[in-house]
């Protein structure tokens, strides 16, 4: 994605503008340390490229930016649940319009704050009062925090994920490691050697992964460190060929250059009492 070519709607500062991308508004960051774009639709990080380095975030060439369905690629916000445990799948946050709350910048980088609060529409799906804030810090690394607050009077249970799609050179030579000794696949727990390579579809939850998960990408001659917090598992996903072909918003060969490494609360195991907060985070460091 060439973020510098997007039509500008408003200039907010030397480093931050609001731009138009097809049917959605995006916050564009062009800073000496890095460039990035974050969609107000879904509070969705669409791109992040440290200066002098390759893109770290993968975006589908067939992604739909019309503002009516979830965007394929980037970092979708799965909230207030993860997976198909309720409707809609992965929650409503990724298809909701968020508000640009604040932007701050200095010589080291930019912080963007987007917020989502309960409404009649959200309460019809999930009957709770809340405030969700996505904090995106763009420096020579990308640091994303999802802060959930119970603004009501009664407790609720919470799950979710920062569904990060990483840009890689070749899935067949990529290794994801520091994943712990066990994974869950199709609801079944299986032993793990702590790392995985790819020669077929992989869709796993690693409940004992290290705080820092390592993605070795020899095709692009780099290593990505994915540092997670507030999670109880790391989801690793690659759809492989058949599933890529079946999805209209992915090209047939999309699986070759992406892998998802997701900071997740995969089972709605976080309970927030009135006034309490929870922070789910992921940080991407390109080495």
From TrEMBL:
Its EC number is 5.1.3.15. CDD domains: D-hex-6-P-epi_like (cd09020). It catalyses: alpha-D-glucose 6-phosphate = beta-D-glucose 6-phosphate. Pfam families: Aldose_epim. GO terms for molecular function: isomerase activity. It comes from the Bacteria. InterPro entries: Aldose_1/G6P_1-epimerase, G6P_1-epimerase, Gal_mutarotase_sf_dom, GH-type_carb-bd. Keywords: Isomerase. This is Putative glucose-6-phosphate 1-epimerase. It comes from Enterovibrio norvegicus.
